[in-house]
Amino acid sequence: xxxxxxxxxxxxxxxxxxxxxxxxxxxxxxxxxxxxxxxxxxxxxxxxxxxxxxxxxxxxxxxxxxxxxxxxxxxxxxxxxxxxxxxxxxxxxxxxxxx
Length: 99
What we know:
single chain, alpha+beta, four-stranded antiparallel β-sheet, two-stranded antiparallel ribbon, 3 helices
């Protein structure tokens, strides 16, 4: 997670990089925040590297469908803060085209 935190600081400093949202442990979301609403998929990382219900894990994010993102976030947030990077359909197409 430290590498991810270093990347966020770098993204903030140079004002570029992927959109990232950090949510605090203990929050309970009724709706997805604006940057996450409507995303096709999202990458989730638990802040402390813990694994919850097969999601998360140290140094690896979990790719989650947008249709279950709210449920996954609320499950994660009971145990850890969460870093989320929303992916649009265009992000996913660009990734598959480059491989």
